[in-house]
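[job 0412] stage=fold_complex status=start
inputs:
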Amino acid sequence: MSDNTAPVAPEAMAGLLAANSGFVTSYGGDPFTARAADLIRQMLDADAEVRFVASGTAANAVALAALCRPFESVLAHEHAHAATDETGAPGFFGHGLGMIPLPGAHGRIEADALAAALAQPQNGHVQSPGAISLTNATEYGAVYSAPALGGLIGAAKAKDVGVHLDGARIFNAAAAGFDLVAIRPLGVDILVVGGTKAGMPPTEALVIFDRKLAHRLDARLKQSGQLPSKGRFYAAPFIGMLEDGAVLRHAAHANAMAARLAAAMPFALNHPVESSGVFVDMDESTRLRLEAAGWASSRFLDGSVRFMCSWATTPQAVDELAEALNSIR
Amino acid sequence: MSDNTAPVAPEAMAGLLAANSGFVTSYGGDPFTARAADLIRQMLDADAEVRFVASGTAANAVALAALCRPFESVLAHEHAHAATDETGAPGFFGHGLGMIPLPGAHGRIEADALAAALAQPQNGHVQSPGAISLTNATEYGAVYSAPALGGLIGAAKAKDVGVHLDGARIFNAAAAGFDLVAIRPLGVDILVVGGTKAGMPPTEALVIFDRKLAHRLDARLKQSGQLPSKGRFYAAPFIGMLEDGAVLRHAAHANAMAARLAAAMPFALNHPVESSGVFVDMDESTRLRLEAAGWASSRFLDGSVRFMCSWATTPQAVDELAEALNSIR
Amino acid sequence: MSDNTAPVAPEAMAGLLAANSGFVTSYGGDPFTARAADLIRQMLDADAEVRFVASGTAANAVALAALCRPFESVLAHEHAHAATDETGAPGFFGHGLGMIPLPGAHGRIEADALAAALAQPQNGHVQSPGAISLTNATEYGAVYSAPALGGLIGAAKAKDVGVHLDGARIFNAAAAGFDLVAIRPLGVDILVVGGTKAGMPPTEALVIFDRKLAHRLDARLKQSGQLPSKGRFYAAPFIGMLEDGAVLRHAAHANAMAARLAAAMPFALNHPVESSGVFVDMDESTRLRLEAAGWASSRFLDGSVRFMCSWATTPQAVDELAEALNSIR
Amino acid sequence: MSDNTAPVAPEAMAGLLAANSGFVTSYGGDPFTARAADLIRQMLDADAEVRFVASGTAANAVALAALCRPFESVLAHEHAHAATDETGAPGFFGHGLGMIPLPGAHGRIEADALAAALAQPQNGHVQSPGAISLTNATEYGAVYSAPALGGLIGAAKAKDVGVHLDGARIFNAAAAGFDLVAIRPLGVDILVVGGTKAGMPPTEALVIFDRKLAHRLDARLKQSGQLPSKGRFYAAPFIGMLEDGAVLRHAAHANAMAARLAAAMPFALNHPVESSGVFVDMDESTRLRLEAAGWASSRFLDGSVRFMCSWATTPQAVDELAEALNSIR
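[job 0412] stage=fold_complex status=done
writing structure:
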């Protein structure tokens, strides 16, 4: 159904437990937060302001509010989470900030559509683009290559448009070959590194490469309800998952489970299976039969039925699901 | 220094670990969330919509935004957390919502001041009160009695002013004799039950007694970045702490530690010690000597130096602090 | 080019001059405002709160903010002014309020599309409809009949969705046969009566039928920058134009000029000419030749080239334009 | 009672009538707007973006929103219009933007109080200053000298705090000797030139000296409901009043009427009479007797009773009021 239904990976929980000892400074002034931020910077091989927040929706919205003014818009894939599935959070945190939906196969923004949007005349009657929001892996499990991402970013930057990268499943992209070290050189201004979908309890790392965007950042976060008092509990899972590379191992596992499911899938794939999701062409009566057989799935924006694998998905579960799919077909 | 510097109590962590097993519905549709909400309703002996969110700042701000429109104001003690220490979060979540600061000894709003504010003429040029925000225990560790709270609430309700109760330290108030079951009959519309300061990892229960205020509540929370995907991790600590009454036991301990400190305190108390905080009259050079001796404290809005006890404060620590205080005096 | 390029009609200016004498109460407490509000109520044969504000964009946005909460959306024609041409003002005044664009021929919302949008499942991840925004005459000069409007309103009301009527060109609709007295019985909650496009200096009447929505209305308007200090200057033009029916006479003239242009038009009409606008199929090189010949026009959202008539458009001008159009064809 | 109760001066109305001819580009692209902007720049001897908007409340709020982010605050005199009399408009347009009230005699901010506010430690829990809002003439009719204003501005600029000057009565200040040409060199970033109180119909000039703050300004104004379609009607009164210096002549007259009233005033003056307002010490029963005698006045924030002169106040009226005051004394 969703990678949000999974429990927390043992390494993340170990990190949490290890941090739960003694008294430490609140509001992010603790050594766990410092350590986790260092690990993020090492992982990206880049200098950056790093904060740990509770919500990916909020992290994305805060990032977009930092990049734009209310009379501007965010360019995003028409099916991007921030555009369709966050109840207008960018407009709420961004005070009326608009959204310009762009098409593109498999959740990747089409370069021509972006160029056309960026070429639109600017005037007082429209919310012109202030930022582009990219997602890797995409909502449909596709993975941008660094050059593909760089092409979109270059086009945006040429028009002074800021760049946000929604990394809710960035570890799945990394496990599929996307180089995390390329993110900063490509020109990303703000990155959200998803901990939650990667197998942690709720936590996301907000990574601001461009320090000018971090002016009074703690005040911004506090006002937005995203400066946790007991900050160590948002940082610690990252320590547990990053220190020995567990997070990539788990992401690779999730990707492998999706590939295994795809290989056994009796329904047509609507998108290439490049990371942890499998999107298939299935009519509703079939989907309901599957549900009756005990397997949850979700109907997605493009009409696909989605199966999502996580760190906790077992090969047995995949095989049983494949069997169920074959039997209801 | 603060009850936010303490680790998580064992019962809360046990609740968390117990919930970390198997796949459950995301976004609050899981059995842990249902169970924790039931426990909250039982504790309050009242029907209510209950949600578990990450941030007390956000919970308060969302509550006030639900009670007011942007062209209205919130009546609050001039030193209330929502008025002074949340970076304007009520104005951010409430889109310009104002704040009317009221005086009162020990953090309790003075009834006459409230009456005067409610009697102000209303016109198009001012933000008239749409809600009152009360805090129990107060910022200065004082505890409202039910009748005292009822008096303020009654005055507000007579003017159609909504009622928010910030319960960041409601368990400390309860341990000091405040009856939680009285909250609903007194007329509170929205209550925030603080888990974090009570010894849990970051989690707060948003309790909406008046169901009209809960219209499309999940959409409100999601847009505000406060609808956690893995909801079980915000509900589970409450289960661990409420099921066997641990939370009140811990709060009573924190209160007892404050009383122990007060009894040995060589500096004048600025506020009666009714719950977990001790506020004393101490000049800055003395405070710095204390800091040099390894003891953190904070200078508060009224000029007091604050010492805050938590579930994790030991009698030994209190005695050592008392000794240090006596030696630097 | 636009009815906004025209000067002010003599009756409106006479109203203004007549009001410019002596001292009167500010902020709408003056007798001119009272008189103009009475005339609006008479015209609509309905009780209502009436205010006069400077901006149609703001009037629409304030109305939608009154009808919705930020986590809700406004159903509107995909080419409605509020959806496409107000720089996201509803989201700004409504604090992130969303917009659900609906299709429909000639700017009229298609009943089936509305039904489908209203039937969408509601959940925490989407901004469900809180209001519908209708426009009469539409952006394409079409005029809703009362039954057609009533059908859409009825469908919305059945789902507890509030109703806003953007009447930027309501007098053109009225001159084309739409009965203004039907507006209230049809179920409209808030109406904006456009003065500006009707031949007045900038002024719009905000008409709130449902008094519950007018709670602390002056505070709402003041906070929104729409409570004019010298209110008489926004009310007076309405007096001049409503007292002897001039406004409808002028609107009928504008409509007649559009019909005259349509009759002589050598290009295909993209929309029926029911009020004051003529929308034609014209390629860009032809439009530029027309511009070179001294005639301004605008390319509209559906690709049409728009010619807009106003109270000040003369038959001679129409004939000369028709001649120019024929010559460049 | 207020300078908002006066009619429009003949030169302003003449400007309006002169502009009411022929068709001109809408949304500020007309020659009247260009001419009025030139006159404003000449008057200030400075380059600037100039726009004409309907509302001083909105102009101030838009200016402050351009200077600050929501998690910042505006330093303002505790009785400044923007702080006390605009229903929280800065917080609405600025999305939760805070206000830091500062004391000072006669509406002038006290330099020491400003220094103390600017010296406050910055952290994530408070809304630190992003702008200072100054008013000349002040709410109490006092006039800042250029050096006094420069001192405050210098202190603000040294901390990277932006500078807004509310010139609702800037012409009264100018008529009292304040040099308008000094405004830009003193370091003001955004100035609002009040037309309304100066004897025009509702119109204010928004003057942005720092062009970086004018990025996408028309979009900002349109979204805020402050980009008038028929822009000429907000520019034209300025042309009529600025072209031959009428505005200063009228302001000098208003100031002279205040001086005349002060000279005959039987009640103690609470503030020096430096421009057009007279503030006196009068108990409420006396004020009500005055009201019964047909003279409106208003009780101000400091407890004074205010008498406000305008371009339209006649010496006869002043003398009659003085007589009435003497008789009720």
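[job 0412] summary: The two ends of chain B are 19 Å apart (CA to CA).
[job 0412] exit 0
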